[in-house]
From TrEMBL:
Signal peptide bounds: 1-18
Alphabetic keyword roster: Membrane, Signal, Transmembrane, Transmembrane helix
Native source species: Mycena maculata
Keyword Membrane listed: yes
Transmembrane segments: 234-254
Protein name, per record: Uncharacterized protein
Amino acid sequence: MFTTLLLLALAIPTLISADTPVPPGHCSSNNNHLDPASKKLVSDCTDQTFCSGADPSNATCVPRQCRRDEFPFGFSAGEAIPPLCARGTFCPDEGSGCRALVPAGSPCELNRDEQCIAPPDWAHLASTQNFNGSICLQSVCMYANVTLGDRCITDNTTYIDVGPSGQQVTNTVTRDNCQSPQFYCNPTDLICERTLPIRSPCEADPQCTSLNCATGTCANPPATPVRIPPWQCALTTTAIVGAMLVTCMLLILLDKRYRLQRSRELRDYYYQQIGLRRSIIALHAAAAEIYMDEKVVL
Ligand SMILES: *[C@@H]1O[C@H](CO)[C@@H](O)[C@H](O)[C@H]1NC(C)=O
Ligand SMILES: *[C@@H]1O[C@H](CO)[C@@H](O)[C@H](O)[C@H]1NC(C)=O
Ligand SMILES: *[C@@H]1O[C@H](CO)[C@@H](O)[C@H](O)[C@H]1NC(C)=O
Ligand SMILES: *[C@@H]1O[C@H](CO)[C@@H](O)[C@H](O)[C@H]1NC(C)=O
């Protein structure tokens, strides 16, 4: 399947170019299409220009008149960039100038939910899965307002990329017009169903309220910050302080023991010295006595 897609990716621009000969220095806006792998808009013009002209097959590349991103693709630092669009307008992918938002049912570009007018109850419908309650599915603007048990529309977009070791990596994004995050569109019968809470068994990401189905169970999204419960903080603090106190007390005890041993040694030495002195005095006294006796005898 990947090889077919790859061949298609290589073949599409060639096929279209072959069908419509474009005069040199000119472009044809009929050649505008999305790259099958990356879904990026590809045209005869560069990233800084778009194909403009009354006759689509004999138009010219002119500088873009607006940008959709703060930092647009294809412009280097310091280069003059086209302006962003004001509120209530949007910049189409080709950058041909700001246009007014379009109502539900009108065409929109892939992944450009913000091209659609917000529904009247936008505050109630808005979620991370849509833009202000509007969603662009199958290139049509609609509201993400379908509730439990009603028919819904899904849209799969498959992106293809090359992995670190050169293998093809595909990523399919499934979107639907059910109210989110409480409902999702079941792909088998296209009916909105309730999303599943954390730790429920699941088969695909959209089934989970957290949008993350990991090894068959709904899990927190990978970027969720780890929250440490207060009791764990308290336990850890107590353990650290306790360990420090125990260490201090052990050191004090060891020091006391050492000092006691030293003082015992000193006392023993002192007693020994006193004993020695007494012996010398006794010896001296005995010697003196013998000498006196001899003198008396003489
Ligand atoms: C293309 O348009 C230019 C003027 O923009 C014109 O001079 C030229 O004849 C046109 N060529 C074709 C093939 O229509
Ligand atoms: C959503 O739409 C309403 C009505 O058009 C608008 O007042 C509000 O500012 C929008 N919110 C955002 C985040 O764009
Ligand atoms: C939901 O939105 C569509 C437009 O996308 C509208 O026609 C329909 O009446 C809305 N349904 C409800 C229940 O608001
Ligand atoms: C979209 O993809 C899901 C699984 O990823 C599949 O079940 C569903 O049938 C697909 N829908 C369409 C319209 O291709």
